[in-house]
Amino acid sequence: MGDSSAAAFRENSGSAGELAGKRALVTGAGSGIGAAVARRLAAEGSDVLLVDRAAESVEAVATAIGARYTVVDLSVPESVAELGENVDIVVNNAGLQYVAPVHQYPPEMFSLLLAVMVQAPFRIIRAALPGMYHRGWGRIVNISSVHGLRASPLKSAYVTAKHGLEGLSKAVAVEAAGHGVTSNCVCPGYVRTPFVEQQVTDHAVRHRVPREQVVEDVLLSRTPVKRLVEPEEVAELVAWLCGPSATSITGSSLPMDGGWTAQ
To answer: Which of 98, 105, 133, 158 is catalytic?
Structure first.
């Protein structure tokens, strides 16, 4: 586990921020939404632990915000078991994608996506809840997707995993309601992340079309607001859900999709 300058960061932070003194865990924090969330929670005074499988990228983000980090493969159950212990805030963000028709979908890839996006969040939440219950406060934010609310072809494992994460989040919300713990999902549409940028590039190369055409005609074809969501927008919603203004919001799924699911 890397330590960076967490102590110095906390000393410099003082009591500033709505989440001062709270310990936060963010998975998939080496880039994209996870990195933006880590930065935002740190700005609110949280002592953030960043989790990612890419050592170089997560170290860079952690160093920039004076936070701790650990390199973990979330598909390995033994690596996940203790991650959630002694944290006040859990942000389950890590994810991956594999695209293929159901009848050609590799079973091992289907299992991998569910391991990272359903089983790992379950294990992290399971480890976190006893401490949250004891302290009478906790915030769980699961980065779901519009695909946790809708389906698209060729993404059977991803859609299954995100729907599963939605169910887990709601079950936790009901169980934890009497302990000062909230559990919610944030459901973005397509976000400007390396994850999405790679999908755009792959599609453009495969179909020999400009990247801009892929964004407009494929990614945003069902979205009234014709732009990608920015990671910082998602991070703002996550921080708000963790703050004092959202204490009555639990078991919710909040779309941030430019109107996609309104249709």
So the answer is: 158
